[in-house]
Structures are given as C-alpha cells and as structure tokens.
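Sat 14:20. Reprocessing the chain from the morning session after the first attempt stalled halfway. Input below, unchanged.
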Amino acid sequence: MIDACARQIDYIRISITDRCNLRCVYCMPEHGVTSFEHREILTYEEIVRLARLLAQLGIRHIRVTGGEPMARLGCLGLVESLSRVPGIETLSMTTNALLLDGRVREAHDAGLSALNISLDTLDPEIYRKMTRGGDVFRALSVIDEALALGMRVKINAVPVGGMNEEGLVDLAALARDRDLCVRFIELMPVGCGASLEPVPTEAVRARLAEAFGELREDTQKRGFGPARYVRPEGFCGSIGFISPLSHEFCGQCNRVRLTADGFLKLCLNHRAGTDLRGMLRAGASDGELLSAMREAIYRKPARHGFESEIDDREVRRMNEIGG
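Finished this time. Tokens:
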C-alpha cells in the first residue's frame, strides 16, 4: 500500500487493550484511569478479520501492543491466530514483560518471534518509581529466557529528565554481552509525557560515547521501524536511537495503528483515521472494509506536527492509543 506521500505502508501496531498492570509515568496517571468497557474493544475474531484484510493491502509486519497486551485474557491465542494470517512475515509484541514471566516459551510456541520490552532503568528503586510498582528482576528474567529461545529482543527506554538519566549507560551495557538492541526513544509530548522533561538524543549519545568510545554505525537490519543503530567496539548487540523530535523520520514512516477500540489511526499525533469497529458491527463486507482502509491509509498525514499547530492534535493517553 502506497500513501499520498509515496511511502510504502507495510507495518501495523495492533493494540488489544488499554489496560496495564503498571502505571508508567509518561503513559498513564497514577490514579483515576477509566478503561474501555469490554464491549468497546474489538473481539479477537474482529482483529483477525482485519489483519487478513490488511495483509491483502500490503501489511507484512504486525506488532501486538496495549496497554499491556498480556493483561488481556487469551492474548497468546490471538498471537497464534495472527501467526497464521497469509502474507504476514513477522509477528512481535511490545510489552513490559512482567506478565510474560514464566510464559515466554508459550509465547514463542504460539508464533511470537520478537519482543520489544519497555525497560527504562536497571535500578530496582527507580524502576519501581517510574512504573509505579514494577519489579525489574522479572523483566530481566524474561529477557534472558527469550534470548535463550532464539527470539529477537529489543529494549525500549525513554530517557526522562530527573528520573533515569544517570542509569542510561548501565542500561546500554546490556548489549555488550547479549545479542539484543537497547533503544533510546525521545519522550514525545503526548498524554502524560507532555508534562515531563525530555532528554534529546544527542545528550544520550554523548553520555554513551564517553562511556564506550566511538559509536560506530551498525548497518545490519534490525527491524522495520525508524531506529538508527550503532555498535561500540566489543559489543555483541546494538544501541538504537528513535528521535521523533530532533531527527524527524516522517518521510520514511511505514506504519499505521489499530487501537483497541477499533480505530485505524494513521499518525501518533493526529486524530485522523477511520472507525473500523463501527463498520464491522454495522455488517460491512470485506470489500467495504478494504476500500475504507485503503482510502484512509492513502490520506496518512505527511508529518506528525509535534512542534506545530495542528487542528486534529491527539489528546488521548498512550495506553488508549496503543504503544
């Protein structure tokens, strides 16, 4: 599927729930979260139907997200169904990993080949504070088990000023002896993250270069997103940077999102998209759904507009949008 900006759209993030077992500071407020009612979210059968149609439009890579996807009962059954969709080449999951503890082999056997694990620090106390209650050792256990099973593992860390800055070098060092990617993602001014202090990519790079020496470009293909990778001397894995603010990558964006409540969302910072749940439950045919999705994707916004005035700026929290 080619959009109006001549970008090939072949990657979708499918959120299956807005619920989460944690309350990370940049994602959700500590108290007072109102979740979607169960009838508001897509059924697994509806998700698989849409995935089959999206594959016909050229989607080749699916990432299952939330909230925390493992917080929804039957998540791994959905993974198994999605792994059988003709045309889908890779199936991965973004997760905080805690609810995968003890279930990594089950996830692997269901067809999951890769994990993106949210991990902002190795310090147990800072991790507990940033996640508001998480146990970092459970996340680390899942990482080691996934690697032992041959799964691809990426760690996603969001540097936040005044919180986890001092531990970024230790976090990056996980890639020294493990074949994984540690990726630093600039804090985006969406939802709860808008009130926190971002740490620019260049500041992170400077810290890492001081600790590890030259950050040589890693040209090995590490996935289907916008990260730029480096590999210091002696590292088994890689370090990545995703910099939507300081190094905008909109011109190469290849993704769309399906929210848990069935909205095909075209850009993180725009409300633009189309309500697929409404069409599904009104009895739309496959042809009608294909036409609606094709038209929506063609109109994908050219730029995210984080630092501009846009008419349809997104106001929902990240757990409602999908990670």
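The longest strand covers residues 90-95.
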